[in-house]
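tool_call: predict_structure(chain=1)
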Amino acid sequence: MEVCLLAGKIMLSSGAETYRVEDTMNRIAKAYSVYETNSYVTPTGIFLTIQGRNKEDVQTKFMRISERLIDLNKVALVNDISRKISSGIMSIDLAYEKLLEVEKEEPLYPFWLQILAASVASAFFSLMFGGGWQDVTPALFAGGIGFILFIYIHRIVQVKFFAEILAAFIIGAIAYLFYYFGMDIHLDKVIIGSIMPLVPGVLITNAVRDLMAGDLVSGLARGAEAFFTAFAIGAGIAVFIAMI
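tool_result:
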């Protein structure tokens, strides 16, 4: 029970799809000779019931998932542990220890590298959306600073949508400062490129995959979260534009 729930918790809180989490937990339980397993996963919680050969020997447990990030490296590590369990080469005690190590691991990419990636991506997104080379530097700074502020605001205020609104507002302000001080830039292209690191691409993808897999509750929940994230980003830019 604990091994299955810990594996599911790590995967779900790291950005895995609902069906992948359920399949992994069921495979682990089956590998350890559990007679029957039933799992139900939503973006905010995991239900797991395991039954022995005696019908009265049933255990059910619920685990709440309060924080969800994107860390596909942890998803890959849990998948690797699951494959070793299914192959019979990893004991249950060792599997639990390995999963605890994965849970405590720091992100694969350090914070400074994430900022650099967000900055560079913002710069090239501005080009991709029709901007010129003069838009690269403003988008580089606006995207990087906006991403930093989003991370720090989210740590202080545990409301993701509020952090996204403020980050988008700051991105618009930085882009406008470059325009205000005389740089010949395409303001719209700079703003669009700079907000791209905040866009919920993985959420949208997972929502569609969950819906296609028949997980309607999870698909609609993820779709709603993606919608409100996009709305928050748009609202932050709209508020800034209204102020100028």
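agent: The first strand starts at residue 36 and ends at 42. Proceeding to next step.
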